[in-house]
Amino acid sequence: MKPLLETLKAGTGYLEKHGVDEARLNMEHLLAHVLQCRRLELYLRFNEMLDEECLAALRGLIKRRGEGEPLQHLLGTVEFCGHELICDHRALVPRPETERLVELLGERLAAQPPLKVLDVGTGSGCIGLSLARMWTTPGTEFTLVDVSEDALELARLNASRLGLAGQSVRFIRSDLFEKVDGPFDLIVANLPYIPSGEIASLSMEVRRDPLNALDGGPDGLVIIARLLTEAGKRLSPGAWVALEIGHDQAADVAALCAAAGFEQIEAVRDLAGIERFVFARQSAASN
């Protein structure tokens, strides 16, 4: 038996020694997970004694976190755009930057939401499913594709969790546009954009994400370039492409958009001031 506060402090120290950022916050999340309570409730329970069963479960989680396993994998869920999604090794951990992409789409397309949406490289489904919860006009269709069947199974589970199973959301295993035709009013994608040579230098946590969700080829733009080259044939006139990209790729991606014939190309900053997104529009005269 050990007091909760003593356990919290000891676990925080262990995580700090193993280089975990925000060690105290991580420890609070793990402790709340084991106790099945809200994190802030811990502050009302500092004097509570934890039994050996609880401590044993907690020790296992702390060890795994210290070894670089993402906190979200240990908790099994992640909050994204106000929804709780299942999160595990099958797909990228959804990140705040991607939440911002969803928010921007909601703001920019509020006056006329798209009726046919394609989320390419959907992973956990976080983008496409969040948009499906946002845009509920009857007849709106969402197509979520990924090359990984494991990722698609995770996305299906999240669709069920959000009450979207059996609605106008379909899942297709496809290498980009291999098995989808369109036309779509919006294509959104958070594709692999890390240059192959930089993978080894990523944090332990990020390297736990699937390699095929990270590796964008020698310059990080191989898959994005493929998508932009092929996207025009799957878009309706005046439709949009929205991409999340690497921190230093905006100019190159904008050039790829221009080469592919897109208009109204714009690099948009995330909340940290980084040009993290590129929006581009299909010509209204396109067939």
Write down how many β-strands occur, each being a DSSP E stretch of 2 or more residues: 11
Query: How many distinct helices?
Result: 9
CATH topology of the largest domain: Rossmann fold
What's the mean pLDDT score? 95
Shape label: elongated
First and last CA, distance: 71 Å
User: What is the top-level CATH class of the largest domain?
Assistant: Alpha Beta
Helix content: 25-40%
CATH 4th-level superfamily of the largest domain: Vaccinia Virus protein VP39
Low-pLDDT sequence parts = none
Taken as a percent bin, the fraction of beta residues is 15-25%
Q: Provide the number of structural domains.
A: 2
Q: Which strand order does the major sheet show?
A: 7-6-5-8-9-11-10
Element-level helix/strand string: EHHEHHEEHEHEHEEHEHEE
Radius of gyration, rounded? 21 Å
Report on this model:
The chain has 287 residues and is of the alpha/beta class. The protein folds into two domains: 66 residues; 204 residues, Rossmann fold, CATH 3.40.50. 36% of the residues lie in helices and 20% in strands. The strands form three sheets. Strands 7-6-5-8-9-11-10 form a seven-stranded mixed sheet, with helices on both faces. A two-stranded antiparallel sheet has the order 1-2. A two-stranded antiparallel ribbon has the order 3-4. Strand 6, helix 7 and strand 7 form a beta-alpha-beta unit. The relative contact order is 0.10.
